[in-house]
User: Which sequence fits this backbone?
C-alpha cells in the first residue's frame, strides 16, 4: 500500500520504498500502489505531484558579483590597510594614504576580475530535467516531460535514452547502462530484475536505473521509486552543496600574519609615543612619527604582491594545460601532500584494449599466451588460433570504428568499449569487420542476454552457416564440447574445462576483463547458437595505464606526496593498475572496498590509521569519498582530489584543491573543481604543484624582505629617541621609503620562477605559518644589521664629516634606502650560489632596482620633491659614505646565507 499523505511533507524528496533493490519488483510496485501493466491514473498523478514536487534538482544559489567583490577585502591584512589609509589621511600624510588606497584598489580589481565566475556546480544537472520520458499511464504509453514524473510512474526505456528518475526494473531485455559518470564503473553494466542483498553498494544495484545515466543497449521497464532530490543524483547534488570549501591554507596564514601585525603596529605606536614624550620630544612630532612607523610596519604591498604572484602562477599553469579557477588554489597546490586520484582516464587511457590472448596448444589443456604490446601484434603461421580468436570477436560484434587507417592510434569507436577494442585489434591484424562481412555476410544475430551472458552471430560460409559466439568465460566454457588447438579440433573434457576455468580466474586476478570466444558450423540459421560449440580462446582486456603516469607518480614520491587511488571500479582491476603505475609497490598491498568502509561511526585509532595508510580504495560511494577526504584533513593533511564524473563533484568541492578532467569531465565536475586539466594528464598536476611551491617560497621571501626593512626603520627611530639624538628619519621620508620598498623589489621577488629542486623536498608542514619562529629571528637579525649600518652612517655624517642636520638626515635616508635595495639579494635560498641563484636570475629584480634607484635620485635632485622630503645633497663624501655603509648589510647577509646553507 502507498503511504498516506501524512507520511511526507509536500515536496518531500525522500524515496517512497525502503531499499527497493532488496525486494521483488512486485512488492515494490504494490507498496507504490501501482499496477505495472496499467500505470497511474491522472488524478493520482496530480496528487503525487503535489505531494512530492517536480522531478528536478534544487538549483544552487549563484554567487553574485558583489559577493565576489566583498570577498576581496575580507582578510585581516586588507582591513588593516583600510585603517592605515584612514590614519594617513587623518594626519595629513596624503602620499602614503593614496599609495595604500591604490594598493587596495589594484589588489581588489585583480582578484575580482580573476575570480569573477559563477559557482553553480549543479546548474548543468538542471538540463537533464528538460528531456522527455516514456511513461505508461491509464494503460497507454505516452511521452511526457521528465519533470512531470512522480514516484509510482511506470517508465519504458530503450537504447540511447537518458534515465530521468531512479527506477526499480520490472522487465529487462539485454539491458546495459553506462553508469560511469555516477559510479565510476568503466564499462556498461548489465541490468536485471532479481532482488539483491540489502547491503549491495550503489555500483552493484543492478536492478535499479539511476537518474542521469544512459541506456547503452536493450530495453527495459520499471517503476519510479525516487524523483528530484530523492534520487541518487539528487543526493549527490545535495552533498555538493553541503561540501563546504575550507579557507585555503594561504588565506589562513595571511590572516594569522595580519593578526600578528595588528598587535605589532599597536605596540610600535604606543611604544614610540611613550618613549618620545618621556624624553621631552615635541608631542606632535612624536605622534606623527609613531603613526608613520606604525603605517610603515603594515606591508601594504603584501595583498597586491600575493595576488599578482598567484595570478602569474595561474597564467603559467594555463600554459601547461592547467586552468585554475581560484587564485588561492594556486598556492594550495604547493602545500598538497596527498592526491586522491580516480583511475579511469587519469591513471589510465580510458579506452579498453586487448592485452592478452590465450589459445590452446596441441594438448587441449595447455594454454599458449600472447601479449598485445602497445599497438602491435606480430603473428606467424603457427599462431593461426590467435587470428581465429580475433576474427570471432570481430564478427560477433555490434560496435563500429571511425577512420580507415589501421595504424591510427587515435582511432575512436561507437558502442561497447570491449567490442570497440576487438574491432581495433582486428584492424591491427588485417581483419577489418567490413571486409569480413563481405566474405561472411551476417544473416542472424542473437543479442547479448544477461541471463545467458553470451552473444552470437550467424554468417554465410559456402553452403553452411558459421556461428561466432563471445561472452562470459564461465558461460561459454560450459557450452563447449570441443576445443581448437594448434593441431586441429579435439574433444573438450572435464579436465580441460577445469584448466580453462582456472586460466580465466588467473586472468581476472590480474585485473583483466575476460571474454571467451567460440564458434561452430551449422547447416541452418535457426539452430541453437549455444550448443556444441568449439572453444577458440580467451581474450583479456584492460584500460592501459597512461604512458607518463608511472614517472609522474615516482616524482610525487620524491616530492613527498602520497597518491591514493579512489575508484568505483572493481578491487582486482584497481589493484592491478595501482601496481603497474606505482601507487603501491607490493602486489599483496591491501585494497579497501567500499563495503568495508563504515566512516559514519566513531573509528578506533587502529581503524583510522588503517584507512589513512591505505593507498587503494575500490567501489567507493560519493559519501565515502567525502568521509575519506575529511579523515585526512582532520589529521592535518592538504588533500587534492581528481575526478570527472557527477559522483566526484562533492569530493572535488570538499578537497583543499579539486582537480577536474577537461576533456572527458562532466560539466558538474568541472564547475565544482578549483582546477581543470585540459589534457586530462596526471603529470600536469605536478607542474601545478611545482608552481604552487614556488609561489609560497616567493611570498615568504617577499615578507622576509619587507618586514626586515620595516623593522630596521623602527629600530633606527626608537634608538634615536632613547639616546636623545636627532631623528635620522622624518615621518614623510619613512612613508616614501615604505611606498618604494614595499612594492617594486618585493613584487619582483613575488613573481620569480622559483627553484625546480624544491620538488625533491617533501611538502612543508601544512600547519607551518608563513613566518615561523626562525623567520622572525632572521627578520630581527637583518633589522639589527641594517639599522646599525644606517645609524653608523648618520653618526659619521654628523660627527666626522660635520654635515648639517638636513644633509646628515639625507645620508641616513639614502643609506637605508639603498641598503634595503641591496638587501633583496639576501633573499636567495640558503646554500645557493653567491652569483648564480634564483634572485640574480630574476629579471624583474634588476628592473625593480633600476626603477627604485631612479625614484631615489628624483627624491634627491627634483626640486619640489626634495623640498617636500627635506633632502639635501650631502656632497661627494656623503655619497661615498652612503654607498659604503649601504653595502655592509649585503655582505653580512651573504655570509649569513652561506652559513645557513651549510647547516
Assistant:
Amino acid at each position: 500500500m502507498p503511504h498516506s499523505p501524512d507520511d511526507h511533507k509536500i515536496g518531500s524528496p525522500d524515496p517512497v520504498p525502503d531499499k527497493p533493490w532488496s525486494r521483488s519488483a512486485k512488492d515494490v510496485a504494490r507498496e507504490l500502489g501501482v499496477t505495472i501493466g496499467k500505470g497511474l491514473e491522472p488524478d493520482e498523478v496530480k496528487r503525487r505531484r503535489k505531494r512530492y514536487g517536480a522531478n528536478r534538482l534544487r538549483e544552487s544559489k549563484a554567487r553574485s558579483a558583489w559577493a565576489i567583490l566583498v570577498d576581496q577585502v575580507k582578510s585581516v591584512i586588507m582591513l588593516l590597510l583600510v585603517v592605515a589609509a584612514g590614519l594617513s589621511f587623518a594626519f595629513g600624510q596624503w602620499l602614503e594614504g593614496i599609495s595604500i588606497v591604490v594598493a587596495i584598489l589594484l589588489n581588489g580589481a585583480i582578484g575580482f576580475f580573476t575570480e569573477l565566475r559563477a559557482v553553480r556546480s549543479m546548474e548543468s544537472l538542471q538540463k537533464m530535467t528538460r528531456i522527455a520520458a516514456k511513461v505508461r499511464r491509464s494503460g497507454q504509453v505516452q511521452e511526457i516531460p521528465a519533470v512531470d514524473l512522480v514516484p509510482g510512474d511506470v517508465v519504458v526505456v530503450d537504447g540511447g535514452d537518458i534515465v530521468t528518475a531512479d527506477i526499480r526494473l520490472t522487465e529487462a531485455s539485454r539491458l546495459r547502462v553506462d553508469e560511469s559518470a555516477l559510479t565510476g564503473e568503466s564499462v556498461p553494466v548489465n541490468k536485471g530484475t532479481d532482488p539483491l542483498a540489502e547491503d549491495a553498494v550503489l555500483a552493484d544495484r543492478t536492478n535499479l536505473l539511476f537518474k542521469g545515466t544512459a541506456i547503452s543497449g536493450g530495453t527495459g521497464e520499471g517503476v519510479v521509486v525516487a524523483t528530484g532530490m530523492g534520487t541518487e543524483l539528487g543526493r549527490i547534488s545535495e552533498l555538493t552543496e553541503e561540501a563546504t570549501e575550507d579557507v585555503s591554507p594561504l588565506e589562513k596564514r595571511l590572516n594569522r600574519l595580519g593578526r600578528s601585525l595588528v598587535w605589532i603596529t599597536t605596540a610600535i605606536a604606543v611604544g614610540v609615543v611613550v618613549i618620545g614624550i618621556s624624553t621631552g620630544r615635541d608631542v606632535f612630532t612624536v605622534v606623527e612619527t609613531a603613526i608613520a612607523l606604525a603605517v610603515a610596519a603594515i606591508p601594504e604591498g603584501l595583498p597586491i604582491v600575493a595576488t599578482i604572484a598567484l595570478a602569474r602562477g595561474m597564467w603559467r599553469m594555463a600554459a601547461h594545460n592547467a586552468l585554475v579557477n581560484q587564485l588561492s588554489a594556486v598556492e594550495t597546490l604547493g602545500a598538497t601532500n596527498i592526491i586522491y586520484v580516480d583511475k579511469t582516464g587519469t591513471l589510465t587511457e580510458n579506452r579498453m584494449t586487448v592485452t592478452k590472448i590465450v589459445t590452446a596448444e596441441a594438448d587441449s589443456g595447455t594454454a599458449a599466451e600472447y601479449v598485445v604490446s602497445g599497438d602491435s601484434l606480430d603473428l606467424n603461421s603457427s599462431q593461426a588460433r590467435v587470428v581465429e580468436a580475433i576474427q570471432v570477436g570481430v564478427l560477433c560484434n555490434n560496435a563500429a570504428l571511425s577512420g580507415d587507417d589501421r595504424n591510427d592510434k587515435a582511432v575512436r569507436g561507437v558502442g561497447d568499449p570491449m567490442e570497440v577494442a576487438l574491432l581495433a585489434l582486428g584492424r591491427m591484424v588485417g581483419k577489418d569487420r567490413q571486409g569480413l562481412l563481405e566474405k561472411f555476410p551476417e544473416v542472424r544475430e542473437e543479442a547479448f542476454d544477461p541471463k545467458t551472458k553470451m552473444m552470437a552471430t550467424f554468417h554465410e560460409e559456402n553452403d553452411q552457416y558459421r556461428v561466432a559466439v563471445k561472452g562470459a568465460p564461465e558461460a561459454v566454457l560450459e557450452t563447449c564440447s570441443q576445443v581448437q588447438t594448434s593441431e586441429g579440433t579435439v574433444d573438450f573434457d572435464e579436465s580441460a574445462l577445469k584448466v580453462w576455468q582456472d586460466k580465466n580466474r588467473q586472468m581476472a586476478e590480474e585485473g583483466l576483463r575476460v571474454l571467451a570466444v567460440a564458434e561452430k558450423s551449422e547447416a541452418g540459421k535457426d539452430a541453437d547458437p549455444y550448443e556444441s560449440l568449439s572453444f577458440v580462446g580467451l581474450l583479456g582486456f584492460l584500460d592501459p595505464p597512461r604512458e607518463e603516469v608511472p614517472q609522474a607518480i615516482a616524482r610525487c614520491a620524491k616530492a613527498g606526496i602520497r597518491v591514493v587511488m579512489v575508484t568505483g571500479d572493481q578491487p582486482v582491476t584497481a589493484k592491478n593498475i595501482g601496481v603497474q603505475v606505482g601507487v603501491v609497490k607490493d602486489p599483496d598491498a591491501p585494497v579497501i572496498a567500499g563495503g568495508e568502509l563504515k566512516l559514519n561511526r566513531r573509528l578506533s585509532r587502529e581503524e583510522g590509521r588503517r584507512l589513512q595508510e591505505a593507498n587503494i580504495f575500490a567501489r567507493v560511494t560519493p559519501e565515502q569519498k567525502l568521509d575519506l577526504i575529511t579523515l585526512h584533513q582532520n589529521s592535518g593533511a592538504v588533500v587534492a582530489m581528481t575526478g570527472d564524473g557527477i559522483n566526484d563533484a562533492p569530493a572535488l568541492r570538499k578537497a583543499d584543491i579539486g582537480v577536474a578532467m577537461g576533456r572527458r569531465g562532466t560539466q558538474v565536475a568541472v564547475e565544482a573543481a578549483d582546477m581543470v586539466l585540459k589534457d586530462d594528464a596526471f603529470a600536469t598536476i605536478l607542474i601545478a604543484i611545482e608552481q604552487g611551491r614556488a609561489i609560497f617560497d616567493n611570498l615568504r621571501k617577499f615578507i622576509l624582505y619587507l618586514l626586515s626593512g620595516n623593522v630596521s626603520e623602527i629600530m633606527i627611530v626608537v634608538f634615536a629617541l632613547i639616546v636623545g639624538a636627532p631623528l635620522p628619519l622624518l615621518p614623510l621620508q619613512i612613508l616614501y621609503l615604505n611606498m618604494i620598498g614595499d612594492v617594486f623589489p618585493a613584487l619582483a621577488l613575488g613573481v620569480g620562477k622559483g627553484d625546480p629542486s624544491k620538488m625533491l623536498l617533501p611538502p612543508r608542514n601544512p600547519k607551518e605559518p608563513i613566518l615561523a619562529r626562525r623567520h622572525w629571528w632572521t627578520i630581527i637579525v637583518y633589522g639589527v644589521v641594517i639599522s646599525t649600518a644606517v645609524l653608523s652612517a648618520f653618526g659619521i655624517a654628523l660627527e666626522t664629516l660635520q654635515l648639517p642636520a638636513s644633509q646628515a638626515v639625507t645620508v641616513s635616508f639614502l643609506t637605508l634606502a639603498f641598503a634595503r635595495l641591496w638587501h633583496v639579494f639576501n633573499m636567495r635560498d640558503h646554500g645557493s650560489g653567491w652569483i648564480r641563484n634564483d634572485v640574480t636570475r630574476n629579471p624583474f629584480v634588476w628592473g625593480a632596482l633600476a626603477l627604485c634607484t631612479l625614484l631615489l635620485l628624483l627624491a634627491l635632485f627634483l626640486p619640489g620633491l626634495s623640498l617636500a622630503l627635506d633632502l639635501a645633497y650631502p656632497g661627494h663624501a656623503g655619497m661615498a659614505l652612503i654607498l659604503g655603509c649601504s653595502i655592509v648589510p649585503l655582505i653580512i647577509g651573504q655570509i649569513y646565507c652561506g652559513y645557513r646553507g651549510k647547516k
Q: What stands out?
A: The first helix runs from residue 25 to 32. Residues 1-15, 114-129, 405-410 have pLDDT under 50 and may be disordered. The chain has four domains: 5-59+123-238, 259-300+698-902, 324-349+546-680, 353-542. DSSP finds 31 helices and 26 strands in the chain.
